[in-house]
């Protein structure tokens, strides 16, 4: 439970109050109501898909290749990489903005030019990774728990300052529906823990054998409930303690809600604690996603070389992958694109396709999954996936 919880709850949580709260209080209530089925049913479908393999212990790419062919297996590997890379870029932008804001508002200093600040931060992160990936992963795993406790503490601290400002914003039926529709991708991103599902299911299968499905389902259900309770309490507490203008200002400044709270409240502890927690959360998420993205890129380059009959120099491929990732993150952090815009336009569509659409397609096409056909939850997952993808398309067109 805590492993899945830690995968989902990270830097993405810090941007959800801004996106979800901008539309007002009442669309947020509906989003809170659908958060659990959105999270639990979609990830349960992915668990079932991985367990449908005739070869126990197969990971997601192996299961896709078994059911849909080798080409589809390579495509899923590519899609997973393309899911992780934009998130990595988001965290590069987010960390640069958080440090820049901290230097201006809390330290009272003038930050260096953005191009140098972002390069320094990224090279610093890479230096930490060079010290030892195993230790980095372990330390970042430990940071999950204090991070969650601090989130809850900040949510509780804000309770006395709750006001009705956001509740005064009552949208019409058309605006209400549009707000709800366009907020779904951010919800999908914030509760997504699909990168951990493959390893989680394989571990349950290894330990419990035929009982793995029931065990995985129980763990996923409880983990999703815990995620929704913690995150939505934090989101509601932030939204109820701020005015709509504050949320719009946070979006315009392209910073997380914690950085904005630290700048707004006249409390020495809050002003320092909130941006520091934001830095830790973004750094934690950056390390995890960097390791996954680099692995994916190394795999793609190696597959391409082998397909062309060329030898694979692992050291050279690793060096190229690391340089490519650093260059991409540095460019994004320097250009400072909208973080919420990147979530909506880059991360959402691929996550929705892999998490919502593919398992439901498999229910119809894969004999081993036909026993799940006709369940009401399938309709919910397919509908939310279609809504998420259509909302992203609409945002891009607009």
Features:
mainly alpha; 398 residues; Amino acid/polyamine transporter I
What does this structure look like?
The protein has helices at residues 2-8, 16-21, 25-51, 60-68, 70-105, 114-130, 133-158, 173-191, 194-208, 212-241, 244-253, 257-264, 268-307, 314-335, 339-365, 376-397. It is 81% helix and 0% strand. The longest helix has 40 residues, at 268-307. The protein is globular and about 60 Å long. It has a single domain (2-397), classed as Amino acid/polyamine transporter I (Up-down Bundle). The chain contains 16 helices and no strands. By secondary structure, it is mostly helical. The chain starts with a helix and ends with a helix.
The poorly predicted ranges are none
CATH class value: Mainly Alpha
**CATH domain topology:** Amino acid/polyamine transporter I
Question: What is the string of SSEs from the N terminus onward?
Answer: HHHHHHHHHHHHHHHH
Summed over residues and divided by their number, the pLDDT gives a mean of 83
CATH hierarchy: architecture: Up-down Bundle
C-alpha Rg, in Å?
A: 21 Å
Q: Could you say which structural class the secondary elements and strand pairing correspond to?
A: mainly alpha
Number of domains: 1
GO molecular function: amino acid transmembrane transporter activity; symporter activity
Keywords: Amino-acid transport, Cell inner membrane, Cell membrane, Membrane, Symport, Transmembrane, Transmembrane helix, Transport
Subcellular location: Cell inner membrane
Transmembrane segments: 24-42, 75-95, 115-132, 139-159, 179-202, 223-243, 269-287, 316-333, 339-358, 379-397
């Amino acid at each position: 439970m805590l492993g899945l919880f830690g995968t989902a709850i990270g830097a993405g949580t810090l941007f959800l109050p801004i996106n979800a709260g901008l539309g007002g209080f009442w669309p947020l209530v509906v989003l809170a109501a659908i958060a659990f089925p959105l999270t639990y049913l979609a990830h349960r479908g992915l668990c079932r898909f991985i367990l449908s393999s005739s070869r126990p212990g197969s990971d997601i790419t192996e299961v896709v290749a078994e059911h849909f062919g080798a080409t589809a297996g390579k495509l899923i590997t590519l899609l997973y990489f393309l899911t992780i890379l934009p998130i990595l870029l988001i965290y590069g932008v987010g960390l640069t903005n958080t440090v820049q804001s901290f230097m201006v508002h809390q330290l009272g200093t003038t930050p260096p030019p953005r191009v140098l600040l972002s390069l320094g931060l990224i090279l610093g992160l890479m230096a930490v990774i060079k010290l030892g990936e195993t230790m980095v992963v372990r330390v970042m795993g430990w940071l999950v728990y204090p991070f969650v406790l601090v989130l809850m503490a900040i949510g509780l601290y804000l309770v006395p300052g709750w006001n009705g400002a956001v509740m005064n914003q009552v949208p019409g039926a058309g605006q209400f529906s549009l707000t709800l529709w366009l907020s779904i991708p951010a919800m999908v991103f914030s509760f997504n823990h699909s990168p951990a599902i493959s390893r989680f299911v394989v571990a349950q299968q290894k330990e419990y054998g035929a009982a793995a499905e029931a065990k995985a389902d129980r763990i996923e259900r409880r983990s999703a409930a815990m995620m929704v309770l913690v995150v939505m309490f934090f989101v509601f507490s932030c939204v109820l303690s701020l005015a709509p203008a504050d949320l719009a200002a946070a979006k315009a400044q392209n910073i997380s809600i914690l950085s904005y709270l630290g700048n707004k409240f006249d409390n020495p502890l809050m002003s320092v604690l909130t941006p520091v927690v934001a830095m830790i959360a973004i750094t934690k998420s950056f390390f995890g996603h960097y390791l996954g993205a680099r692995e994916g890129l190394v795999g793609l380059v190696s597959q391409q070389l082998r397909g062309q009959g060329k030898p694979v120099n692992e050291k050279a491929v690793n060096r190229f992958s690391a340089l490519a990732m650093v260059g991409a993150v540095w460019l994004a952090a320097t250009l400072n694109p909208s973080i919420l815009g990147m979530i909506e336009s880059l991360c959402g569509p691929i996550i929705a396709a892999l998490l919502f659409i593919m398992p439901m397609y498999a229910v119809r096409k894969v004999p081993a999954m036909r026993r799940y056909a006709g369940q009401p939850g399938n309709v919910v997952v397919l509908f939310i996936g279609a809504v998420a993808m259509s909302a992203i398309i609409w945002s891009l067109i607009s």
